[in-house]
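Q: What residues go here?
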């Protein structure tokens, strides 16, 4: 079985990384210890951009962000191979290492954007956290709904008619409401500065016994609402908590180390744009210390709401994000391969290695632990401002 270190290689980068505009954040060591925005150059050098813009949120606001990523002068802090190998150790590695690529942006997520995962959310709701009931409920829900929702446009007249029929059968659900209704589900996935990056541990609430990763593409959106790039993300999910009550969504989604983004943000340019996001195929592999292996996939061309439409549900006259935001787009992945009691489907065990990949964005790898055992989140906004001030980077 491969270890985490075995996976932190150049293969974590996009297949065409030498042609891509890649930016991220790295923790620097020594006298200038702290986080800096960085860019990866075609020769593999990683360049510190903090003297130009000290935060990623401000770097992404700039009209010349592509030029900065490709050619702005800056100190070379190491090779991308070295930073990848050091990732996950963060401030304890003694060497520069990659962090989550976002900093001051809000971290938002859109839920129930794929029909397959929509059906699993309905099952969770009906089971109310009781995994023993999942298989019987799955059969019942599929008998009622079948594949009829796959071609339904959310908010359409057809969707309204399906709602009317399902209400009459007593099968309507709050998840169906946001899945095919006019309003998308947009929620706060995690707090500003709390995301972990490539190689870091991801945390499950220690009381959860039914949970899973959610492989997703994460859009980087500027404060003006412009979608400027994309990364990979793991929207760690607690199926038992959310299934017991939708009011537990915050506890289900937002725990220490429960949000992973990385390895880098790929900026949109002539060779990579929103159409590549729309057609992306995400691969998921989970490898357990018990020998269990699960492979999954999520096809973005099966999303029920267009990615840019989801951005308008999060941002606009009704809501602004002056420092920009990261938006998880949702997943069609809902694991049903049993790993325990028959019919329960998948749930994590400590030590699982989770690998999420797609050719144009690379690979995000993390190891599973519980949120109380993961390194505590201590470096927030105030710590960032103090650090940048001490380094003479605020102006």
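A:
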């Amino acid at each position: 079985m491969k270890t985490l270190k075995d996976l932190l290689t150049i293969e974590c980068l996009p297949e065409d990384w030498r042609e891509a505009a890649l930016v991220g954040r790295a923790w620097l060591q020594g006298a200038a210890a702290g986080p800096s925005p960085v860019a990866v150059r075609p020769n593999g050098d990683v360049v510190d951009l903090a003297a130009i813009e000290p935060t990623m949120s401000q770097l992404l606001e700039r009209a010349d962000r592509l030029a900065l990523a490709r050619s702005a002068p800056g100190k070379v802090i190491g090779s991308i191979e070295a930073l990848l190998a050091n990732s996950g150790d963060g401030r304890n590695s003694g060497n520069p290492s990659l962090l989550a690529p976002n900093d001051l942006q809000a971290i938002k997520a859109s839920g129930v954007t794929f029909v397959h995962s929509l059906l699993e959310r309905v099952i969770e709701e009906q089971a109310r956290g009781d995994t023993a009931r999942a298989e019987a409920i799955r059969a019942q829900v599929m008998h009622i709904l079948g594949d009829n929702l796959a071609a339904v446009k959310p908010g359409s007249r057809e969707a309204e008619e399906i709602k009317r029929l399902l209400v009459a059968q007593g099968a309507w659900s709050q998840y169906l409401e946001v899945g095919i209704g006019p309003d998308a589900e947009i929620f706060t996935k995690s707090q500003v500065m709390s995301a972990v990056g490539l190689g870091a541990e991801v945390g499950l609430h220690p009381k959860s016994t039914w949970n899973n990763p959610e492989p997703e593409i994460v859009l980087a959106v500027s404060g003006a609402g412009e979608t400027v790039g994309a990364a990979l993300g793991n929207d760690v999910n607690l199926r038992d908590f959310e299934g017991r009550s939708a009011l537990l969504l915050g506890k289900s989604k937002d725990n220490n180390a429960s949000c992973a983004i990385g390895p880098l943000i790929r900026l949109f340019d002539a060779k990579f744009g929103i159409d590549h996001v729309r057609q992306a195929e995400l691969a998921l592999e989970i490898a357990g210390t018990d020998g269990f292996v699960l492979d999954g996939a999520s096809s973005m061309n099966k999303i029920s709401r267009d990615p840019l439409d989801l951005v308008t549900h999060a941002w606009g006259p009704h809501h602004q994000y002056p420092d920009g935001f990261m938006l998880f787009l949702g997943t069609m992945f809902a694991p049903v391969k049993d790993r325990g009691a028959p019919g329960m489907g998948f749930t994590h065990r400590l030590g699982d290695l989770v690998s999420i990949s797609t050719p144009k964005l690379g690979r995000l790898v993390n190891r599973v632990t519980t949120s109380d055992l993961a390194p505590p989140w201590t470096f927030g906004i105030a710590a960032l401002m103090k650090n940048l001030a001490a380094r003479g980077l605020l102006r």
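A: Context that may help when evaluating the design: The chain has a mean pLDDT of 90. The first helix runs from residue 4 to 7.
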